[in-house]
Write a structure and sequence with these properties.
Blueprint: E1 4-9, H1 11-29, H2 34-37, E2 46-52, E3 55-62, E4 68-73, H3 82-97, E5 102-107, H4 111-116, E6 120-128, E7 131-138
Length: about 160
């Protein structure tokens, strides 16, 4: 089992690592335009980095309103549970922040991954940066799967 740890990142101190990982996954692999991938939410979000044997191999962020996004894992490290660990870390951060609802715009191909963590897809498929997405929300412990956030900004 690889030695992986998830830690809260300092956006200002870790910006180069965060953007290098996101560039490799979103811009280079998925052809997302750089001007769409990097946005004004980054400075106000909480970020995490996944470290494997001392190397940053994954990242993700959560906005103050509970929106999870920009989850990226290096291609060579996928399939090892690192994405799950990043998601769990972001979900924990959201609970610690006291957000009412965790949600995201998920790439359709990743919906099964997020469903395993309890997220529920809703609404129509929409295009974001040339990639099909759907809204996904983590229902509260008591149910209420029908609630959706008032505003869903695209591109995550």
């Amino acid at each position: 089992m690889p030695n992986v740890r998830i830690r809260k990142a300092s956006f200002t101190a870790d910006i180069e690592l965060i953007f290098a990982l996101r560039k490799a996954v979103f811009i280079d692999e998925q052809c997302v335009p750089a001007d769409l991938e990097m946005d004004d939410l980054d400075p106000i979000c909480q970020h995490v980095l996944a470290w494997k044997d001392g190397i940053a191999v994954g990242t993700g962020r959560i906005a103050p309103d509970g929106r999870i996004g920009r989850m990226a894992v290096s291609a060579s490290c996928r399939g090892q549970g690192i994405g799950r660990d990043i998601l769990n870390g972001l979900m924990r951060m959201g609970r610690d922040m006291g957000v009412e609802r965790l949600y995201m715009s998920a790439q359709c191909q990743a919906i099964p991954f997020y469903e395993k963590a309890g997220f529920v897809a809703s609404g129509p498929v929409f295009d974001d940066a040339g990639i099909d997405h759907r809204l996904m929300t983590l229902p509260p412990a008591g149910g209420d799967e029908g609630h959706e956030p008032d505003q869903v900004a695209k591109q995550d």
